[in-house]
Write a structure and sequence with these properties.
With about 350 residues, the protein is of the alpha+beta class. It folds into 2 domains: about 5-165, D-amino Acid Aminotransferase, Chain A, domain 1, CATH 3.30.470; about 175-340, D-amino Acid Aminotransferase, subunit A, domain 2 (D-amino Acid Aminotransferase, Chain A, domain 2), CATH 3.20.10.10. The protein is about 25% helix and about 30% strand. It has 8 helices and 18 strands. The strands form 2 sheets. Strands 1, 2, 3, 4, 5, 6, 7, 8 and 18 form a 9-stranded mixed beta sheet that branches. Strands 9, 10, 11, 12, 13, 14, 15, 16 and 17 form a 9-stranded mixed beta sheet that branches. Helix 2 crosses helix 3 (about 105-120). The chain is globular, with a radius of gyration of 21 Å. The chain binds pyridoxal-5'-phosphate.
Length: about 350
């Protein structure tokens, strides 16, 4: 399928100063439509701008939508690099299947991403740690208030130049272990990237913020015993020399940064396992001096060291509130690969020409 390109006649001024995350958008966006008769059709890159949608549009009412998140980096030598983009589009189809959205062609998505990033390459910031955050998403667009899968959809990609996620550097964060609300349950859609999971989580996130915690650690939705993940990150523990992360069980998002961290540990010979782990086990490890490191993984922050966990009335300090050795090594390696400084495993990087 040929991608039609309509360039903007009014390029915007590039941002100056701190970029933050998710506030600023580049000059163009990608759109493609779906109908039952035509399938996915009319892929195009057009000037960035608002959509006009009927107030009855299904996504507004029932949340039938999926999204992805990845980053483009500009290497020191000027090359533009995408990190494991094929994994994002494999995953969007996993989410699509659960949300009853028609599947989308991975190759076309990758090509669309590359053409959009190529056209907006001057929007990729070059400060250390900065990148162009890429947000593909699909929304249900039938103007209809009945409940059923939509017959029409829009797939779009927008790009947002973003600074270092933590402007002050890799400072360990404080995490609140949520024991009241739950985010997802088995049989639900916790394994997908969809707005509904976030809608279920923002209240707990808000309360945690008010109490001085940067994120919430979710426990399983049935017994609230087993660890699931953090707001928009997967979670890892290093306990007595072994790196452990909760096994994918249907209610946890299968993070690409998670997968990359596991693959790197294996490559380095660092013991790593995916298994069910309870908050009680983590607490006991912390009491016995065996909770050596805790970190989150996700595209936005890459790696986020955790310096403190609060569970009920227990406060667990991790590694004296300092970043741990394996946490730092994984961060340095993944960011090194993403910026073209380190040669990663085959297939992790795709270049935008
Ligand atoms: C996106 C996301 C992650 C992290 O996945 P990455 O592919 O590493 O960015 C973790 N948890 C949730 C709920 C997410 O939406």
């Amino acid at each position: 399928m040929n991608i039609r390109i309509e360039k903007t006649k009014n390029p915007k001024a590039k941002p100056e100063g701190a970029l933050g995350f998710g506030h600023i958008f580049s000059d163009h966006m990608f759109i493609m439509d779906y109908s039952i008769e035509k399938g996915w059709y009319d892929p195009r890159i057009v000037p960035y701008g608002p959509l006009s949608l009927d107030p009855s549009t299904m996504v507004f009412h029932y949340g039938q939508e999926v999204f992805e998140g990845l980053k483009a980096y500009k290497a020191k030598d000027g090359r533009v690099l995408l990190f494991r983009v094929d994994e994002n589009y494999k995953r969007i189809n996993v989410s699509n299947e659960r949300l009853a959205i028609p599947p989308i062609d991975n190759e076309l998505c990758i090509e669309a991403t590359k053409q959009l990033v190529s056209l907006d390459r001057d929007w990729i910031p070059q400060q250390d740690g900065a990148s162009l955050y890429i947000r593909p998403f699909i929304i249900a667009t039938d103007p209809f208030l009945g409940v059923r899968p939509s017959h029409t959809y829009k797939f779009m990609i927008i790009c947002s130049p973003s600074g270092l996620y933590y402007e002050e550097g890799l400072e360990p964060v404080k995490i609140y272990v949520e024991d009241k609300y739950v985010r997802a349950v088995r049989g639900g859609m916790g394994f997908t990237k969809t707005g509904g999971n976030y809608a279920a989580s923002i209240k707990a996130q808000d309360i945690a913020h008010e109490n001085g915690y940067s994120q919430v650690l979710w426990l399983d939705g049935v017994e609230q015993k087993y660890i699931e993940e953090v707001g928009s990150m997967n979670i890892f523990f290093k306990i007595d020399g072994e790196v452990v992360t909760p096994a994918l069980n249907g209610s946890i998002l299968s993070g690409i940064t998670r997968k990359s961290a596991i693959e790197l540990c294996k490559q380095w010979g660092v013991p790593v396992s995916e298994k069910r782990i309870s908050i009680q086990e983590v607490y006991e490890a912390s009491q016995n001096g065996k909770l050596e490191e805790v970190f989150g993984t996700g595209t936005a922050a890459i790696i986020s060291p955790v310096g403190e966990l609060k569970w009920e009335d227990h406060v667990m300090k991790v590694n004296d509130g300092k970043i741990g050795e394996i946490t730092q090594r994984i961060f340095d390696t993944i960011t090194g690969i993403q910026t073209g400084v380190i040669e990663g495993p085959a297939g992790w990087i795709q270049e935008v020409k």
